[in-house]
Amino acid sequence: MSAEQVVRVGVLGAGVVGSQVVRLLTEQADELAARVGARLELVGVAVRRPNRHADIPAELLTTDAAALVAREDVDVIVEVIGGIEPTKDLLLTALRRGAGVVTANKALLAEHGPELYATADAVGTDLYFEAAVAGAIPLIRPLRESLAGDRITRILGIVNGTTNYILSAMTADGMGYDEALAEATRLGYAEADPTADVDGFDAAAKAAILASIGFHTRVGAADVYREGISAVSASDVAAAARLGSVIKLLAICERTTATGPDGGPVESVSARVHPVMVPRSHPLAVVDGAYNAVYVEAEAAGRLMFYGPGAGGAPTASAVLGDLVAVARNRVAGGRGPRESAYAALPVQPMGEVLSRYHIDLDVADRAGVLAAVAGAFAEAGVSISTVRQEGRDDDASLVVVTHGAPDAALAGTVASLADLESVRQVTSVMRVMG
Amino acid sequence: MSAEQVVRVGVLGAGVVGSQVVRLLTEQADELAARVGARLELVGVAVRRPNRHADIPAELLTTDAAALVAREDVDVIVEVIGGIEPTKDLLLTALRRGAGVVTANKALLAEHGPELYATADAVGTDLYFEAAVAGAIPLIRPLRESLAGDRITRILGIVNGTTNYILSAMTADGMGYDEALAEATRLGYAEADPTADVDGFDAAAKAAILASIGFHTRVGAADVYREGISAVSASDVAAAARLGSVIKLLAICERTTATGPDGGPVESVSARVHPVMVPRSHPLAVVDGAYNAVYVEAEAAGRLMFYGPGAGGAPTASAVLGDLVAVARNRVAGGRGPRESAYAALPVQPMGEVLSRYHIDLDVADRAGVLAAVAGAFAEAGVSISTVRQEGRDDDASLVVVTHGAPDAALAGTVASLADLESVRQVTSVMRVMG
């Protein structure tokens, strides 16, 4: 390495993640230089309120992010401010003039990934985003590089720490949803406005990114079916426990093969986020608290799991810096990281066609004919029942039905017609079941 | 991609892994071409007995591996024959003329990695070896790329499926070592000569590779302390169970910081393979059968775990093909994969200085003064006792001692002096304890 070689880095944002990126860039400067083959020189940090960042040298701080991304001497832009606008324009500006970009912005990638990729490709620069999914866990690189010679069939992920913390607390301590959310907020695991987490928007953006990479197909946030956890009740958690399961909010990406009209195979992909009853024997069932884990099935590799801290300043900064080293190495040694791979362009299956299994808890009248009426409603919709269990008697009677796999729309329709049956007082709980 | 662009691949070996590599290269040719941006053309497969490979087109088979690696039109050599010689010379020949190399050969890398790397660097070509450690689990790429911006402090791995199968069987079914080994052999998990697995040679080679990458320091197979599992008895397994633990053969790589003579910090690394009592609450404790898992601690990222099939034809072929796609992409798009990173050049700590904790089971005379004598032996060696438990009485009396961390040599010395005590009838079991 030549003594003069330098890669100049601009950072957008100095919040929880950005401040750790700046700290590590400084503290590990010598080690990073040895690994890159050039020094990483921090030349600017764009923030909103410079007086709030006493830990960063004042001469590096700027409120003018647009000027920082446009500076011709900045080789790589690290983006950790989040949001769609003005972030998208800032990154497009940086990419257009040939800067490499490292971002942790899952929402931006899920909505505008193809535009960002196309801009990077047009000028031949790098776009890396390991930190956008599952924080510190190396996942994007394994999916788009290590498994590049394999055919991924399924990705199941616990990719949102807030909801996993809440569901873990409900499971461990029997808390209700509101109580567990309040505790998560008090401990800093949930934001003041928890919508993006508890309603599944965050996980859906990550599902879109994982499905896109895993299946070489563009899957956007709008393609992802999404249900959050706010409707999960203590009785759902108890029902899961009786089944030997726990409830997890999973991002589920699947590649399925059906028989087409001409008898040949027709492939499609699906991506969805919703609560699922996961058997305790599954490796994802034991992933508790704010941890993340992603389970990947591939034809040749078999079943893999990646586990670690899914958020937090230092872990996310670790993923950002790994990408920064890669982009900087490419600039020093020549070469490019992987581009968008969307050649497969498989159709995205609508949620109604996706095969699901349901666990349905019914409050029923304890009289002859109830089971027949309920079974009839399933049969009419063509949904096959796996197990049915009657619990209690008289006023407390309930039926617990677990179905075989059936199209989600047929199951949803069955639940609606069950609610209309005279002998069914209430549909107490409906939850999808893994497998 | 230009229609004519082709990357020519030669494969050394068509055994369990090689035959899967050939199959996947053929079956997934179109997908691989889309991912690489060029077709991967298989131009030769070197085997010992061509008549044993009816599944491979005869015109591709050759017994002349030396001629295949020397062919100027072969862009990438995939090596899955194993062994040191003649494999090393074959790969050096390929690298010297600028071919990329993908290998699964842990023993060769652990012994001659620096020479292979230097040869690749001299001509600017690629050396990839994801399949050398933990089969299909993406591990090398996460360690040398995703975590390139972090400081790895510890790597704990279950990296040998044969020994993990044997230890799992001893734990689950109470089998003795010989019985469990016989079962593993019968089921194909152990080879006819199981030495490389059960004596820890295979795991030690992998520990050397992991330590080298993780700590940016050359660590060879000879630097790795090694104990296998053949001395693990059913009573050791039972003793672990009483402690709420299971016995695993771990590859342990650690970076430690001590205070030097001038008061400043002195860093060193260590790498070792031996049986360890692992608490059931640790994620590695539940990794059973032929599965592998590697647990990584890094300063910023925190604790990560990678889990999956550690061996087998198709899983290993998946890792090989991921590397092949990377090498081929580099040849098409320009650029290089990561080179050897050994800049830190930290000293390797001798095993005697490594801090260990021991679990020691003593068959003792049940009389006053025994505990004092035993405690005295520990005190004399400067080893601090964490817990001591007396079990049984009279002829059955035993003492179970668990120590705090102490230099391994001091602990080994203490065990020797315990055996010499008049009141100690026998040292029944000695096992290192995690933590």
From TrEMBL, chains A, B:
Residues annotated to bind NADP(+): L12, G13, A14, G15, V16, V17, G18, S19
Cofactor dependency: a metal cation
UniProt keyword annotations, A-Z: Amino-acid biosynthesis, Methionine biosynthesis, NADP, Oxidoreductase, Sodium, Threonine biosynthesis
Pfam family name, one: ACT
One of the GO biological process terms: threonine biosynthetic process
First-tier enzyme category under EC: oxidoreductase
GO molecular function: homoserine dehydrogenase activity; NADP binding
Binding site for L-homoserine: E191
Binding-site list for NADPH: K106
Catalytic-site annotation from UniProt: K206 (proton donor)
Pathway listed: Amino-acid biosynthesis; L-methionine biosynthesis via de novo pathway; L-homoserine from L-aspartate: step 3/3; Amino-acid biosynthesis; L-threonine biosynthesis; L-threonine from L-aspartate: step 3/5
Reactions catalysed according to its record: L-homoserine + NADP(+) = L-aspartate 4-semialdehyde + NADPH + H(+); L-homoserine + NAD(+) = L-aspartate 4-semialdehyde + NADH + H(+)
Protein family per UniProt: Belongs to the homoserine dehydrogenase family.
Primary role: Catalyzes the conversion of L-aspartate-beta-semialdehyde (L-Asa) to L-homoserine (L-Hse), the third step in the biosynthesis of threonine and methionine from aspartate.
Name of the protein in question: Homoserine dehydrogenase
Native source species: Nakamurella flava
